[in-house]
Task: inverse folding
């Protein structure tokens, strides 16, 4: 990995602007494993009673009551949004590499780790939502609501995989049950904060259009390539001075031949690669 890592270090050092695209692989590298031992430790009752094997697929289960649904989701939110980041060094290393640079972060992750790790909020765009926000399930209006205090109360008071019925979150406008502010269909609420972040990202791309820009792809896969991966490839092709780099455990990045030699792929754990770049 030394040759591509050295090349990436050189590109980063020469870059006038850095656009980071952060996918699920980055959160996994920071310890957010949705299955395995972590799931069994945090959800032993749901695993035994419902046969769940991971947090992601369990989120699509048709819970028979809202009390059980929010018992599951409150625990899911707490461990992935409000509990300490399992391995925070990956974000500390990335922030150290970017702190003195002109950067922007576009992420599909919903765990809010960047802001919790000290990144400038004005340089972040969470495209797919935030575990820390609720919205009307209809939705009857385009506003989101912070959920931390309600989530902590749900977790502390749940018994037998259920929360008290009075804690089921309701829309303050229409009274319908609330929903997660996570993009899964056309009911996703793009509130004022979301639109402001989208505008800041667009402004950053316009402002740096002729700069030596490094598009740094950290752990994005093939679930939603149209959000980060494909646009990063397209902008690298369109900007003669731009470079594209991917760090991902996937051994095959499938880089378009037209990007050579202005693109590289490091088949590495992101935490290990960022630590070596920072050294």
Result:
């Amino acid at each position: 990995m030394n040759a591509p890592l050295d090349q990436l270090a050189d590109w980063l050092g020469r870059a006038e602007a850095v656009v980071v695209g952060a996918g699920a692989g980055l959160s996994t590298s920071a310890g957010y494993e949705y299955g395995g031992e972590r799931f069994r430790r945090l959800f032993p009752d749901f695993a035994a009673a419902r046969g769940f094997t991971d947090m992601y697929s369990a989120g699509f289960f048709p819970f028979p009551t809202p009390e059980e649904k929010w018992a599951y989701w409150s625990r899911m939110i707490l461990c992935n949004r409000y509990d300490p980041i399992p391995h925070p060094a990956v974000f500390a290393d990335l922030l150290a590499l970017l702190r003195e640079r002109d950067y922007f972060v576009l992420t599909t992750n919903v765990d809010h780790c960047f802001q919790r790790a000290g990144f400038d909020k004005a340089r972040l765009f969470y495209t797919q939502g935030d575990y820390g926000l609720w919205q009307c399930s209809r939705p009857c209006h385009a506003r989101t609501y912070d959920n931390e205090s309600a989530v902590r109360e749900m977790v502390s008071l749940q018994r037998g995989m259920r929360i008290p019925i009075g804690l089921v979150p309701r829309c303050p406008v229409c009274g319908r049950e609330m929903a997660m502010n996570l993009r899964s269909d056309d009911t996703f609420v793009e509130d004022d904060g979301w639109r402001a972040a989208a505008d800041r990202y667009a402004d950053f791309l316009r402002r740096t259009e002729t700069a030596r820009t490094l598009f740094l792809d950290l752990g994005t896969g093939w679930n939603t390539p149209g959000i980060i991966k494909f646009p990063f490839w397209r902008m690298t092709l369109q900007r003669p001075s731009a470079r594209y780099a991917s760090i991902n455990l996937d051994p095959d990045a499938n880089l378009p031949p037209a990007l050579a030699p202005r693109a590289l792929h490091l088949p590495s754990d992101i935490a290990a690669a960022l630590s070596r770049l920072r050294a």
Notes: DSSP finds twelve helices and nine strands in the chain. Residues 66-82 form the longest helix (17 residues). The domain at 1-31+86-128+190-279 is CATH 3.40.50.1220 (Rossmann fold). The CA atoms of residues 108 and 127 lie 6 Å apart.
